[in-house]
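Hi V.,

You were right to ask for the full record rather than a summary. Here it is.
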Amino acid sequence: MQPTSRDFARGCGRPVQRAPGGDRQADRPRERANHDVDEALEYCLEEASDEVALGFIDALEKGYTHISRHPASGSTRYSVELNLPGLRSWPVRRFPHIVFHVEATDRVDVWRVLHGTRDIPEWMQGPGRE
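Predicted structure:
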């Protein structure tokens, strides 16, 4: 049976192991971010292979782990451009996707996971912005 994007996406946003002394909760991908991941996985499965989809999930989970441990890392370019204080972006290694996140008091909210060639300001401000 061929795995679906939902099978792969179940791993995204699961609790991440914290460094000793870490007090943050796991990342909390918003519904739009999960939808973005589903779309990316469907594309990988249709146009490439299961291995590419698994590689995307692995790279995404590593990115989620990094921003969980270091939420102030990442570019603030779109924060300034979109006038969204606290918005940061982190690239997904080996893939053309960008994770957009905001640090909250006790967690990191993942807003979107977008392909880097999209019109980012339009996608961030368009329908579905939470």
